[in-house]
Amino acid sequence: MTEQTQQPVIGSVLRASTVGFVCGTRSQDINQPSFGAFVRTRHGQYGDIDVIGLIHEISIDDDPLVRQLILANNMPTAAARDQRENRMVPVEISVVNVGFIQYDTVYQTLPPRPPLSLDPVQLCDADTILHFTRGLDFLRLVLNASDVPTEELLAASLLHAADARPASERYTFLVQAGRRLAGLLSHDLLRLQHLLKLINPA
Amino acid sequence: MSIEETGTIVDAEQRIGATAVTLEFEKVVPQVERMGRTLAAQNTSMSERTLEAWDRLQGLNDLQAIRDRIQLARDRDAGFRGAAPINGLINEPVNRAYPLPPAPDLATIIAADGSQVYPNLHTAALYYLTNVGVFVYHHGEDTLPEQITDPALQYTDQVVRDNHGQVITNAAVNARRNVLELEVLARETWNRRDLDRSLLAISDGPLLFWVGKEVPDGRDLQDTYLGALVWLHDTHAAMQRERGHAASLIGYVDRPTSSFVVSLIHLMSLDDVEVRHATLATNGDLEGLTDQPLLFKLLHPGERSALLVQQSPQNKHYHDRGENYEIAFFYLNVGSGADYHLARIEMPMWVARSPETVDWVHALVYDQCQVMWHYPYALTRADELAVIRSHERTQLEEMIEVELRRNQQQVEQSEKLESKTVRHGRTRYGQKRRR
After folding, report:
1. In angstroms, what separates the C-alpha of B389 from chain A's closest C-alpha?
2. Distance of alpha carbon A39 from alpha carbon A98, whole angstroms
3. Is A104 left (phi over 0), alpha (psi -120 to 50) or beta?
4. C or N terminus of chain B, fewer CB within 10 Å?
5. What is the model's pLDDT at position B9?
6. Cα distance from A21 to chain B (closest Cα, Å)?
7. pLDDT tens for residues B21-79?
């Protein structure tokens, strides 16, 4: 099993399925996560599975008090700080599962079980991303995911994966990913063209 | 069944698949229609009477005549419960509006509010819980506001039962919570007496506190409440002495339904011989009219009414404890632009008799109401901190059950509660069952 890293916890699991999960956090804690980032969550306290996912949506819930403050249109800085730092303005981070790591072996398929409520969710460190993206079978999972901005998510995740590599390897990685996408999207040249533009290393 | 099929209104729950519908809307609809017609007729009558009351208010220019008439009512013990101008100290005509002063540069606002879980014979153990939320807002600074909560669990027989062994009423819990709110407010204000600025303590609701006979320790509660009022005044005195700052207290009453000004207009409409209990038991031809529509005609957004005192035995009791503790009030239109919204701002006499402090309170409260939509921001947040949500109550009850079991106590929920849980379709964890 991969060692848990010292990466920051970005939230806790609110609800989950084998396809993906949603984690909750507070509004002042949303500096770290970004769209397309790789995250991991350990399956339960004594679990042996680290579920790996991609952030595909970060949303801030509706809040009646915030709505009233906006209507009043006269918000001092102290009230804005109060809303962001004192109040539990709930932020939801939606994640699509792209695989799991069990006893250090990477599986780029849906995990056998979802994470549990309140499991901590961490950003993956560079080593984990590198380890996980040696294979690119997860691209198909993302392409087939529903209710997800597929092209943008794939591009963002591939750029994250490229950044996790030494500068000298990034170009090769993105070209390799582009070739793989060309195979998967040979029937849909418009989507392929858009995706290749988004990850174009040049 | 749906709207399309029957052409009648059906319960929303029925449309989303719930099975039990007990309210027969076919029988309710004609009653709702009748209600609409009746209220419309009432409102027409109210508008006419508001105009009549407004005309009479315009004529109340002679403060001395008003004072003389109120004194006559007092001398005859005629039971007048309306508004009176403040005696001797401030000579504000009652039919004028007072403009919004500029807001102070710096101030600290301390707001407190409370909520409770009432005692319930059908839970595993007999208890009640109060929770007071305090929010401290530093006006004129970007400092992060402070938030404090003060929960208290009460479970001993001496507290949850009265002298006859009966479970105390919800009114008793409310009364104790009210007293706690003012005590916590006094404590938090006292703790900030060294700040180099004036303090405004805001309590939710009227400041006059009285309890009925159903509250077993009513007299003690009233004494404790007055003690908290004295503590706040002591804070004010200490701050005045040390740095010349003030500690003010207000009670904020949102959308008041009082008719103190209407009662005064009625009193002034009578001849001297008519000033007696029977004629003052109602407001005569103005009965049913509240101050709100009159004040909307008088006050533009930001403006306040004259400072007034409500005539009541409770307020006299406060006055008898010390003239600083009699409660005065003004009405304030906290709306903006074309939106009118009325609040009644109550304050003890140590605040009301200082025109500078009244201006300061007036400006600060209005400023707070502009941060939020027609309600003080600090009080909104104090309420949010205090409120006990249903899932928190469920969690508390579960914690108590676990603790009882850990102490080898038999936990037995009543059949009534179990039956309610089943009827309402709730699961063990307080969630709706999926259908």
Report:
1. 15
2. 10
3. left
4. C
5. 41
6. 20
7. 678 888 898 899 888 888 887 777 778 889 999 999 999 999 999 999 999 999 999 99
